[in-house]
Design a protein that fits this description.
mainly alpha; Growth Hormone, Chain: A; 15 helices; globular; MFS
Length: about 350
């Protein structure tokens, strides 16, 4: 795989860290701006909203730009938003920077998904997607815990600056590794949107929403399962989260390898096992050893199925070269937002 693909994954790692890191930083942010933790929680909601609307909006905005220009612009905006957020003394400004960062994140991922497949030969496109998406899984393993430790030691602003620093080599990698004359197909927007009328594409998008909704709906409330259901101490929570992250890293690479030759079995068999595992977690998780093993397996299944579905979205939306990545990104983001909201309402 080309080095430029790994540098794109580095940007995804930085953006994934930024997306998930606030859960451990909200109390410090609330104290720093003299607001309640509930008010500080609006930062998470703002980022989630920006991610949902950002993928199609940013992809449509940048659809006539060369991929290198689009990717560099999104990384630069993301970097600038974190620098401004790190130095501002206004909570309102910080809130705006989270929306801007989310829009840039969503736009970057939408373009990067299609760019990654263009950087690899057809028989290795699934693996290229796996490399790109591994940035998100590594963020759950190392980025989020590392951000929490950095925030504890040096303050939450240091974590924002660290994310900005990670974007520098990614931006350089885009300029150096993405060809300036990379083939860029321009199609009218209406035909690209018309791809959403394809029943198979709609089905795959719906499945991607469902998989992410179930995964993040349960993942968000994994800590109470560890402490209340399994009866483990609070210090076991980060251990369980790391196990899930390790499983997701393995799963995204497994799904990438099999997305070309065995996508249907991965989605059908893996999807059924994933649903059964998540919905039986409260029962099977009463035994700590079973819980630890099951969380790892669920990480593998969730991300193997998810990455295979992303590959299928891009395949079925091949006639939408500038918008296909946004369809996949939007599906994942809608699921990630809707899942926790659904489970809160229960």
């Amino acid at each position: 795989m080309p080095l430029s693909l790994y540098l794109l994954a580095l940007a995804v790692f930085a953006m994934g860290t930024s997306e998930f890191m606030l859960s451990g930083l909200l109390p410090a942010i609330a104290v720093g701006f003299d607001v309640s933790v509930g008010t500080a929680g609006q930062l998470t909601s703002a980022f989630a909203a920006g991610m949902v609307v950002g993928a199609p909006l940013m992809a449509a905005l940048a659809r006539n730009w060369p991929p290198r220009l689009s990717l560099f612009t999104f990384v630069a905006v993301f970097l600038a938003a974190h620098v401004i957020g790190a130095v501002t003394g206004s909570f309102a400004v910080l809130l705006v920077t989270r929306v801007v960062a989310a829009l840039a994140n969503a736009g970057f991922l939408a373009v990067a998904l299609t760019t990654a497949t263009a950087l690899a030969p057809p028989q290795r496109r699934g693996r290229a997607l796996a490399v790109l998406l591994s940035g998100t899984t590594v963020a759950t393993i190392a980025g989020v815990p590392g951000g929490a430790l950095l925030g504890t030691a040096f303050g939450w602003r240091a974590t924002f600056l660290a994310v900005a620093v990670l974007c520098v080599p990614a931006a350089v990698g885009v300029l150096k590794g993405i060809p300036s004359r990379q083939r860029h197909t321009t199609v009218a927007l209406r035909p690209e949107l018309a791809e959403l009328r394809k029943p198979r594409l709609v089905l795959v998008i719906a499945l991607a929403v469902l998989v992410n909704a179930v995964t993040f709906g349960h993942f968000t409330f994994l800590a109470p399962v560890v402490t209340d259901v399994a009866g483990l101490g609070e210090w076991w929570v980060p251990v369980v989260l790391v196990l899930f992250g390790l499983g997701s890293f393995a799963g995204v690479h497994l799904g990438g390898r099999l997305s070309g030759s065995a996508a249907r079995p991965v989605v059908v068999i893996g999807g059924v096992l994933m649903l059964a595992g998540w919905f039986s977690l409260d029962v099977l998780g009463r035994e700590p050893v079973v819980l630890l093993a099951l969380v790892f397996v669920l990480g593998v299944l969730s991300f193997a199925v998810g990455s295979a579905l992303i590959a299928k979205v891009l395949h079925h939306a091949a006639e939408a070269p500038t918008m296909a990545g946004s369809y996949a990104t939007a599906a994942l983001n809608i699921g990630a937002v809707a899942g926790p909201l659904f489970f809160v309402a229960q």
